[in-house]
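Q: My labmate handed me this sequence with no annotations at all. I'd like to see what the chain might look like in three dimensions before we decide whether it's worth expressing. Could you predict it?
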Amino acid sequence: MNPEVELLKQLSESFGPAGFEREVSLRVKDHVSRFSDSVTTDKLGSVIFSKKGTSEKPRIMLAGHVDEVGFIINSIEKDTGFLGFAPLGGWFDQVLLAQRVIVRSRKGDFFGVIASKPPHLLKPEEQTQVVKKEDMFIDVGASDPSDVEKMGIRIGDPVVPYSPFAIVNDGRVALGKAFDDRVGAVIAAETVRRMADAGSKHPNTLFGVATVQEEVGLRGAMTSAYVVEPDAAIVLEVDIAGDVPGIKPREAPTRLGKGPAILTYDASMIPNQAFKELAIQVAEAEKIPYQLSGVAKGGTDAGRIHLHKTGCPSIVISVPTRHIHSHAGMLSLSDLSNAIGLTMKLVERLDKKTVDSFTSF
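A: Here is what I predict for the chain of 361 residues:
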């Protein structure tokens, strides 16, 4: 297994919904400590690792968030011990039923399943309706609240999908949870590692950041930017792959295996145009396949970073991924590899003159 795939597996299978990223952050910190010049954190929990190039400036920020969409326990049924839950991040109700989850309490991890009233008991009009999250519950096998108490489960405990990592389609496609956006953290870490191993003479200081709490408001991006003080930022993300039945090209133009996506706009940011054009030029010069993407709804950490202080030129490079914000996503490993390659080649061109040109008139 390639280093980036092994790291993706480790991070994908880690437990870390928004606000509870510690396990993932510790794994990132341990991994990047082997090749970074410094490793630190902000006070929200984002991991920041740096690699000096031939010049202190400009300061380039590579950001990928490590929180995943998950849930938080908000009630315990007094007669049965069934668990009510609220979402951490965006979930479509219809993808939840019958899915296995892991509940983490002060006494350990416990398997459960998201369930609701069985179909045999549904009224005819109920059978054609989507069951809402507030009518679902998590069953951890308890018969009464005392069983839940023995497990140490309390209101406020976090929950994530149970979804082991796998490689499918003859080794070309990865399947697993939390690709949004641990794939971004993998790209940031692998970019810094490969440049360090190769002794790359990048004309800047490079900062990789594994941000936290993106799914609940881009919060780690805001705090970590104050630590890095970036002159330019590349946010590394997943893109919504449109090669799925029912999705029109105008809704999501990217496809698996056709290269990483360069974002042209989303609901949180319009990228710096000169920076975006440079990314396209680098991809074409290096013969790296790429796709152009636009996302009318949703945003990324770039939505905060590009507004840092007086502004920070920012772009987004992403890996097209099917079925995001569900129990299992799919992405092409060639797209992942090409995203790392494109990021590296772009970083090598970001000297002070080039970065200054992004905002000169």
